[in-house]
Amino acid sequence: MLHVTLVEHTPDPERLIAASAKMCYSAADADTILEGLTPEKTESFLQMLTEMGHESPIEHATFTFAIEGVSRSLLAQITRHRIASFSVQSQRYVKIKEGAFSFVTPPEIAKDPAAEAKYQQFMQDCYQTYLSLADSLQERHFRNLTAQGVPEKAARRQAEKTAIEDARYVLPNACETKMMVTMNARSLYNFFRLRCCNRAQWEIRELAWQMLKLCREAAPTLFAKAGPACLNGPCSEGKMTCGRAEEVRERGKTL
Predict the structure, then answer these.
(1) What span, in angstroms and rounded, lies between the C-alpha atoms of 37 and 135?
(2) Where would you tag: which of 31, 59, 106, 158 has the fewest CB atoms within 10 A of its CB?
(3) What's residue 26's pLDDT?
């Protein structure tokens, strides 16, 4: 099941951003840049940046999330957001042990018992094929390595890694993975604008809403206007609009 945690973020991110804006619009220097930045002044600077569309100062604040229970399909989508840092559990180095295989089931498949039964069976078939390939490849690599004089312990370790590198090719996009993701606030604005939208794929959309909730808790003024375009104005999707802006705004109110 999808689970996201805000692990860390820039200390006092809103004040830092206000200080960055102050550097742009005042004669303050490095020694005095934080002076006078009361909560009221900080909020005023952030509102000014929003109204002006001046987004570069918000790049100074970063947020790091631990994400679990998502599919490799989601991984392919989220890594398209290039101004971010990703650390993902490796299928090259981490073997999926017997009984530890987990995967994501799309809600529409889960609603249909017959479809879900086929889906579950296919997942298990993929997993058993993975185990069979990993075991047979590992045994062959182990024999070759020991024949070359590699010590047994090192040979087993190297043989397993080499085997699962190839066996993982049969694993489906549904496989669960986990990752650490760091983005600056400006990148998060872009991420939320695109991925909280109803036109985004269901899994990354749910992740985006959960991340937005955590960001608003950590920096409420900074992320007050973050989200899809229709949250605070007209839909930006043109003829591709989902036509459910009110539904989206209601969800925004629950954050």
Answers:
(1) 62
(2) 31
(3) 73
Give the pLDDT score at 109. 98
Evaluate whether residue 213 is within a structural domain.
yes
Active site amino acids: 195
pLDDT at 210: 98
Q: What is the pLDDT of residue 101?
A: 94
Q: 177: part of which helix (H) or strand (E)?
A: strand 176-184
Q: Give me the domain span that covers residue 190.
A: 3-88+176-224
Is residue 129 within 8 Å of residue 166, measured between CB atoms? no
Q: Centre a 10 Å sphere on the Cβ of residue 15 and count the other Cβ atoms it contains.
A: 20
Minimal CA–CA distance to 234: which of 197, 182, 190? 197
Q: Which helix (H) or strand (E) holds 63?
A: strand 62-71
User: pTM of the full predicted structure?
Assistant: 0.91
Can you state the percent helix, strand and coil of the chain, rounding each to 5?
55, 15, 35
CA distance 15 to 43: 8
Residue 183 phi/psi, 5° resolution? -135, 150
Neighbour count for residue 151 (Cβ, 10 Å): 10
Whether residues 83 and 180 fall in one domain: yes
> What integer pLDDT is reported at residue 37 of this predicted model?
86
Q: Nearest CA to 127 among 168, 165, 162, 89?
A: 168
**Domain termination site, one of 170, 191, 207:** 170
Same domain, 81 and 191: yes
At residue 29, the pLDDT reads 75
Low-confidence ranges of the chain (pLDDT < 70): 27-28
